[in-house]
Amino acid sequence: MNTTGKILAGTAIGAGVIVGISYFKNIKRASVQLEVVPKAYLHSLDLSALKIRVDALLKNPTRATFSIKFPYIRIMYQGALVGSSQVINKDIRIPAFGMVVVDGMMVEAPVLNLLSVTTTLAKDLKEKKPITFDASVITTVNLGWSRIPFETKQQVTLKK
Questions:
Q1: How many Å apart are CA 85 and CA 75, to the nearest integer?
Q2: Residues 6 or more apart whose Cβ sits within 8 Å of residue 94
Q3: Beta-carbon-side half-sphere exposure of residue 121 (alpha carbons within 13 Å)
Q4: What residues contact 40, with CB distance under 8 A and at least 6 apart?
Q5: pLDDT tens-place string over residues 34-55
Q6: What is the DSSP letter of 118?
Q7: Is the pTM of the predicted complex or chain greater than 0.90?
């Protein structure tokens, strides 16, 4: 191979590396901009357990399309774990500049756990007063070439 061919090959490889690095930086930045808006609803309360249904609106304000694993939800009350959702191995695709609603995620908390957390919580649930929980939404963003863990914590008010 002559010198001109080597220079062209080197230039093409260098340009490919620069384009690749730029693409991966943009995709990684997009994953951080995922916005999660959870809403919690009282599904049922009986002698065995409190069941909370969580719906989440996932917003992608970027030009990158990516997928995430089905979100895992953890509900805390005054720093104590109330309950968590099931782990589901399912991918959810979020389009560029788009939104996806993930609904029907169930969090089950045994009543004995609630009584150990606080008697005030049990009393407020019985009287159907609004209760504010800390909700953690945990997932993994799949960028194709890598997977990045993603977690957001927000307060949600339990609705009837």
A1: 9
A2: 34, 58, 60, 65, 66, 67, 68, 100
A3: 23
A4: 52, 53, 54, 75, 133, 135, 156, 157, 158, 159
A5: 888 888 888 887 777 788 899 9
A6: -
A7: no
